[in-house]
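Data deposition worksheet. Section B asks for the primary sequence of the deposited chain exactly as it was used as input, without tags or linkers unless they were present during the calculation. Section C holds the resulting structure in token form. Section D is free text for depositor observations; keep each observation to a single sentence. Incomplete worksheets are returned to the depositor.
Section A, Depositor: J.P.
Section B:
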Amino acid sequence: MKWKGYLIGIVIAVIALILLFTRMNNRIRNKISKEEAAQKAAHQDLPVYTPPIDSFPYLYKPYDTMSITPNSWALVLKGSKADVDPKNKRLVEADGDMIFVIHKKDIPFVVNTRILQLKVLKPGIFRVEAFRVDNGEKVDVLEGVVRAQKRYKSPFPEPDTVRSSEMVMINDKIDLMEKEKEDLAQFAQWWRSRK
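Section C:
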């Protein structure tokens, strides 16, 4: 008869554990749903920036196609420079104006500028405008997801996650990094026309 008591105790313990794990799982799902809803709401509140036509020099200037890996490449405007790390082909030092096309096989991929580290989280197409002689830099994400992190010491070191049709601007002289929605219709039209 003792074994029946043990068996009932084990069954009760298993049921209690199942209920506990179910409750924890539901709490985690609710927390994730709330965080996603908050991110979506914050995303909708971003102002929309419409860049002037002359801020897209690739529409009328020559560029070079540069292979980075067998799957990913960049369009580098004349006078700009993208140096691929010889030991790690998924790491590029950028100086100038260029467009990166990163394939999912090359994730994670990192582009370092003078003041930003751009980690590609989802494959896509993005433009980096980052001349070493300037205080300001800008990243336009046409497709994909890029995390932008300051490369210098700052009292505000939090990164920004930049998604499709968004941009991030940074100025290290005033220590300001700002993310906004962006009207990239001209960029998208130019990109479609070159395919």
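Section D:
The longest strand covers residues 116-130.
The helical segments are 2-44, 185-193.
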